[in-house]
UniProtKB/TrEMBL annotation:
Its EC number is 1.5.3.1. It is an enzyme of class 1 (oxidoreductase). Keywords: Oxidoreductase. One of its GO terms (molecular function) is sarcosine oxidase activity. This is Sarcosine oxidase subunit gamma. It comes from Amycolatopsis jiangsuensis. It comes from the Bacteria. The keyword 4Fe-4S does not apply.
Length: 197
């Protein structure tokens, strides 16, 4: 009889250390985000396909560079003038890809499942932005990177897709092969907030 394999989070082995950091009372909470469906969408945002896409997902495409918007069960993240990342918590990846691909194919657009391309961490708390600013060249103050902002940037030495969910609430999408490095970097940078002695 074949053994059933269950997927594990790429950062599962770092979860205890991240949990301990979150319980340490340092003004930081770092959690592993559950996997989401993610579809890369390519589309001419100035054409009629943008309206059809908006009707399909229930909200308009974010057209302002480096922003994101909510959908019923996920987000649409601006990546470039003709590219967005659509995430969904409740739709299986192949269904989301099929649904969006069917809509976009009539407008020379494309939808590709990239769910396995990224995993996510959430960093919250009073020092969330300070912590990430140790390794990020962006100005992460809430006035410069407010809620609804998104950026393709680097934290430490790894590429991330960074989203501002709130004033003290940030989500980082990272490639699974670099996720361990990012977790180690966060744990190391957080030592700055531990009391001396």
């Amino acid at each position: 009889m074949a053994e059933v394999l269950y997927p594990t989070h790429p950062l599962e082995t770092w979860a205890p250390a991240l949990d301990e950091l979150s319980r340490a009372g340092l003004g930081l909470v770092v959690t592993l985000e559950p996997p989401v469906s993610a579809v890369d969408v390519r589309l001419d945002a100035t054409g009629p396909g943008a309206d059809a896409f908006g009707r399909a997902v229930g909200t308009a495409l974010p057209l302002t560079p480096n922003t994101w918007t909510h959908t019923a069960d996920g987000q649409i993240i601006w990546l470039s003038p003709d590219e967005w990342l659509v995430t969904a918590e409740d739709s299986p990846p192949h269904e989301l890809e099929d649904e969006l691909g069917w809509v976009l194919s009539a407008y020379d657009g494309a939808a590709v499942d990239v769910s396995a391309q990224r995993t996510a961490l959430r960093v919250r708390g009073h020092y969330a932005r300070d912590l990430l600013s140790f390794g990020c060249s962006l100005d992460l103050r809430p006035t410069a990177f407010p809620r609804g902002s998104a950026a393709q940037t680097a934290v430490g030495q790894t590429a991330v897709l960074l989203l501002a969910l709130g004033e003290q609430d940030l989500r980082l999408f990272v490639r699974p092969s670099f996720a361990g490095y990012l977790a180690e970097w966060i744990l190391d940078a957080a030592q700055e907030y531990r009391p001396a002695g």
